[in-house]
Amino acid sequence: MNKGLLYTLLIISHLVILVAGALFYERERGTRIIPLSDKKISINYPFRFNRVGDAKSPVTVMLFGRYEHENSKKAKEFSSKLMSLYEGKVQLIYVPLKIVDKPEYNDICYGAYAAGKLGKFWDYANHFIETKDFTNAGLDGIVEKLKLPKKEFDKLRESKEAKEFYKLNYKLAEDYKISKVPAFTINGSYVDRLVSANQLKTLIDFELKK
Q1: Which of 43, 52, 87, 153 has the fewest CB atoms nearer than 10 Å to its CB?
Q2: Angle at 140 (CA atoms; ends 69, 131), nearest 5 degrees
Q3: What is the count of structural domains for the chain?
Q4: Same domain, 153 and 51
Q5: Distance set, CA 91 to CA 16, 57, 72, 111 (Å)
Q6: Domain housing 16
């Protein structure tokens, strides 16, 4: 065989191997759990109203999101669907973060705490994730729709505890070094580049087998 042709084939074969290796790495990297340190971050989260599932479940999934992000809606949808597959085995905690650089929307954000204390956190969160209506009319509308007692809602919304709720959520996001949402953690470990429900299911199954 011509030496030039042989060298060409060898180069091509090496390139194929390199490309295949890179693709494999990217595929694996997409489902990798990355602890931020040798010791996982504690998942002792004090609030109950923004979680679904048994608190004693062996797997805790935390979803960090903001109401204005379309991807947060998608992430919540597929994580919620998976909950039905893992009844008694997985709890989901939705960790809302305030709308960035929009201080005029504080009433909407603090209202999530108030709605949660009044037993309507998920209805309230779903409303703003779906409608993106961050106006005073939008806030008044959901309060009326959910039949929340206005005076009690406003008192809770304006409380120190409402601010502490978001302060804790942001502290968690900072501890995990979360810079983009939606973002997931599983049993105290940050999940890198999660993009699909199947990946989340794979990681949950892995945790359950430990």
Answers
A1: 87
A2: 25
A3: 2
A4: yes
A5: 43, 6, 18, 23
A6: 1-30
